[in-house]
Amino acid sequence: MSRDHVQTAPGGSAEAEYLELLARDASVEAYEQPVLLARAEGRPTDRIAALEQAKLLALRVRAELEGRRRREAELSALFETAHDLAGLRDLDAVLQAIVQRARSLLGTDVAYLTLNDPARGDTYMRVTEGSVSARFQQLRLGMGEGLGGLVAQTTRPYVTDDYFKDARFQHTLSIDAGVRDEGLVAILGVPLMLSPHVIGVLFAADRRARVFEREQIALLGSFAALAAAAIDTANLLTETRAALAGLERANDIIRDRSAVIERASDVHDRLAELVLRGGGVHDVAAAVSEVLSGTVEFTEADEAPAEALEASRADGHAVRHGSDWLAAVTAGGELLGALVLRGHPALDPVDQRTLERAAMVTSLLLLARRSAAEAEQRVRGELLDDLLDARDRDPRLLRERAARLHADLDATHVVLAARLDGPAADADEEAAARRRLWSAASHLAATRRGLAAARDGGTVLLLPLGAGDIATDVARRTAHHLGTAVHQPVTVGASAPVTDLAAHPEKVAAAYAEGRRCLDALHLLGRAGDGAAAEDFGFLGLLLAGERDVAGFVDRTIGPVVSYDERRGTELLRTMDAYFAGGMSPARTKDALHVHVNTVAQRLERVGRLLGEDWQSPARALEIQLALRLHRLAAPDRR
């Protein structure tokens, strides 16, 4: 019997069988065995259905665990590489470690690194990992040839899904023979940059067709930056050794160089320590501020001087802007912000290099943090999707999943449907705007201990109600917050408060439908960019509310008058009925009630004090008459 085979006891628990598979990390195929065995044994259909449901849940848990292990491995590889750079002694060992981790990180069959040889005017294979072909490992390429030549010419990453069918780059017999001998099909290449120059290319390749994701391209680009830094550091050490060899001819220069090395090493150690202990962007800025004896700040891309930022990005160096210095923070071609050294116009090359390396470390930290944040956003979205689709009805599991996200499903919540209202130039711009909306909603949900997910072309949020909060206020605040974050109007419709969601997840779907009806009503009323709940629409709220809250509408509309009559035994409700029936004429009202006209006037004055002076306005009067009618229908014995 194979290791993954499960022997199912006749009365065994479906969950227990799949927990056992999860505990021993069984293969995906093994999760089919309990269902197949139950069918073969002719078990009851409810037993088979329970096994099917447990199987789906167990597979989702298995996939989530595998995803977490993968993300931990990616972060560990980045930190280990940074640690290798901090203790750089052997360039070959560091480059080998970078290529090994790049292959592991992207899950490719092969990874390799080529460097330019200025003396021979070509490019050679420096490090390979996973290669089995001697011809491939010994390749030398002319400048501009192959996929690497295209990367070097454009200084941008390039990817090919099928190397031999791709005509964008120059094929040669020697390169094609090596690639064919290795059996490579899909290849991704990113440039190794020193200053504005390409010194080599880092590749990841598979022996089958494959599409590389944007995140994978960015991460390989980060490894290429680390490889370039290692080569740069090794070059600096080589230059230092050469200077020491000429001590008798340039003693002063050597002393200066020694000071440079000490300072560069100090900066390197500080930044590596920050990466290893999980420091943040502002920790990097503080460390560099201390080393450079100045004030270094991280600035968002849209807040930095545009011309200087673009110059730094294009040149790969820190640039001077007035009395400040600015180094662009980039990752895989994406502009993430800038490190700005304030009030320090005189900056020597070593300090300039320090600022540039700090910008590179900052990009790694931002990329790692973004990956972790996106993973948490996906988990929050998956839980809300499960609540909306009511696929997982086990209250205990729902509460446990919510608790891991710092959410409390036993609290009172409101469900919000949010949608963009600004015009989009094309489909790409609209898709980008929706992604920004989802990202902003996910961030808001995380800070409010709620959940968010993309749905129906917009976003749905599940937010807890704070003390004194009402659904209307939450909807309006959310519309303003999201609109500010995405820089265009966002309309938000809110449900009535919902409770006990772990035990009754179907409430979430009903509340979402109510929120969408409110959203549609706001559009029909021309209130784009606003937020509202069903209670804001008066009697129209009855049409919008999912459960037709008649009692709530009556209480909100004429509740003070009802309470007054019940406490004091008065006849204000009866008077209001007669008043409206008589065309709002006090004379006809006193005839209908057989009282003096002054009595009618006094009663109507009391109604005005209870409901507000505008109770006889057309809009209010319509709602009050409807509430009186509903009150009579709910209590027909009252006159």
Show the helix and strand layout.
Blueprint: H1 14-23, H2 33-40, H3 45-86, H4 91-106, E1 110-117, E2 122-129, H5 134-137, E3 140-142, H6 146-154, E4 158-160, H7 173-182, E5 186-194, E6 197-206, H8 214-245, H9 251-276, H10 281-292, E7 295-299, H11 306-315, E8 319-321, E9 324-331, E10 334-342, H12 349-389, H13 395-404, E11 413-420, H14 427-447, E12 451-455, E13 458-464, H15 471-486, E14 490-494, H16 506-524, E15 531-533, H17 540-544, H18 550-568, H19 572-581, H20 586-593, H21 597-611, H22 618-634
Structural summary, described in words:
56% of the residues lie in helices and 15% in strands. The chain has 639 residues and is an alpha+beta fold. The protein has a six-stranded antiparallel β-sheet, sandwiched between helices. The chain has a five-stranded mixed β-sheet with strand order 12-13-11-14-15. The protein is elongated and about 120 Å long. Mean pLDDT is 80; it is low at 1-11.
Q: Termini distance?
A: 81 Å
Structural class: alpha+beta
Strand order in the largest sheet:
3-2-1-6-5-4
| H/I helix tally | 22
Report the mean per-residue pLDDT as an integer.
80
Rg calc:
34 Å
The portion of residues assigned to helices is 55-70%
Q: Count the strands?
A: 15
Regions with pLDDT < 50 over 5+ consecutive residues? 1-11
Broad shape: elongated
Question: What does the largest sheet look like?
Answer: 6 strands, antiparallel
Strand content: 5-15%
